[in-house]
Amino acid sequence: MSILQNLCQQLFKRSLWVYHANSGGCNGCDIEVLNVLTPYYDVERFGIKLVGSPRHADVMLCQGPAMRSTGKALRRAYEAMPAPKLVFAIGSCACGGGIWHDTYSVLGPVEKILPVSYYIPGCPPRPEAIIYGVAVALGVVDKKSAPVKFKQMELAIPRYHPEDLKEENGMVVYQKCEKI
Ligand code: SF4
Questions:
Q1: DSSP 3-state assignment of 7?
Q2: How far is the CA of 113 from the centre of ligand 1 (A)?
Q3: Which has fewest Cβ within 10 Å: 51, 102, 110, 131?
Q4: Ligand 1 and 70: CB distance under 6 A
Q5: What is the chain's mean pLDDT, rounded?
Q6: Burial class, 46, CB count within 10 angstroms (exposed 0-12 / middle 13-18 / buried 19+)
Q7: What residue spans define the domains of the chain?
């Protein structure tokens, strides 16, 4: 068991109050996070409770990538949380920037702004995956998956180049699209 898991077990054994922060996601992950709090999945039976203020929270659940427009507010919310505190990056956007990772308004994964303790990938992750991730973090269950290293593959669609755009029947089309 890792030191972090050990700490979690000792400090958050009976209750885990969570603060839900979306720094710019599409709301898909939010819906799944809220789903785990509904009576169907009912994580309150494990002492996991949603709180309205970061000042009352042990854990911040982050959805969406780190954005230029919301980065400061996210950091301020994190700083308002009392120590010891954990951060869960939930969803591909929070874990790695997702499909927005190289857009102008996105800084990248949430770890660019906050120290992330645990990552729960998926777009969006299923409620079962979120509950499993939290249970692994708390040391309630053992991790059943092997770590995998990902490498950015070449994009199927070449990057945007204005010189490859041509006008056709009043529409601007990408010249090389027949090669894709
Ligand atoms: S990971 Fe997918 S579902 Fe979640 S915020 Fe990003 S795009 Fe939306």
A1: helix
A2: 18
A3: 102
A4: no
A5: 80
A6: middle
A7: 3-138
Token pair for 138:
């708390």
| DSSP character at residue 131 | H
What is the distance between the alpha carbons of residues 21 and 59, in angstroms, rounded to a whole number?
Answer: 10
Give the pair of three-digit tokens for residue 41.
């999945």
Ligand 1 centroid to residue 133 C-alpha, Å: 17
pLDDT tens digits for range 95-106: 988 888 778 888
Q: Which amino acid is at 4?
A: L
3-state SS class at 173: strand
In whole angstroms, how large is the CA radius of gyration of the chain? 19
Cα of 22 from ligand 1 centre, angstroms: 10
Strands 165-168 and 171-174: antiparallel
Does pLDDT of 76 surpass 80? yes
Q: Is 91 in the pocket of ligand 1 (CB under 6 A)?
A: yes
Q: Does residue 81 have a pLDDT over 70?
A: yes
Closest by CA position to 141, among listed 49, 8, 47: 8
* CATH class of the domain at 3-138: alpha beta
What does the pLDDT look like over 83-96, one tens digit per residue? 888 899 999 999 98
